[in-house]
Amino acid sequence: MKRVQATVRDLRIPPLDRTDPLGDLVAVFEQRLGYSITVVATENGSIINGALESRPGGGTAIVVPAGTSTPNRRRHLVCRGLARCLYREPGHRTGRIDYSTTTEQEIEYTALLLGRHVENAQQGRARSGAA
Length: 131
What we know:
By secondary structure, this protein is of the alpha+beta class. It is 46% helix and 11% strand. It is globular and about 35 Å long. 31% of the residues are buried. Residues 127-131 have low confidence and may be disordered.
């Protein structure tokens, strides 16, 4: 997935704030993409893929289950939502993901790379070259 690595590298993600690296990453995406992005919790447990919803005024919401069991899981879902913003692929509202499609494979891989940025910031490590 060299193309995905190049896409993430081209974002030129600056070092993220250690106190809220996930929020900082969302802000980077807002700046790069030119619209507001919010993370919205839902009680609908079937939303498991970081699905996107349009918001009034042209913004986008990344929908994640309320009370996501672990911080790592929440981070991954938000990063998957950011990847969906990048690929302009809102995801199926029921949470179905079809990994047989190239787009979904790239979204998942992009989410993993973005998650590495956040994890590195949380641990105070410098970011790696590709992620």
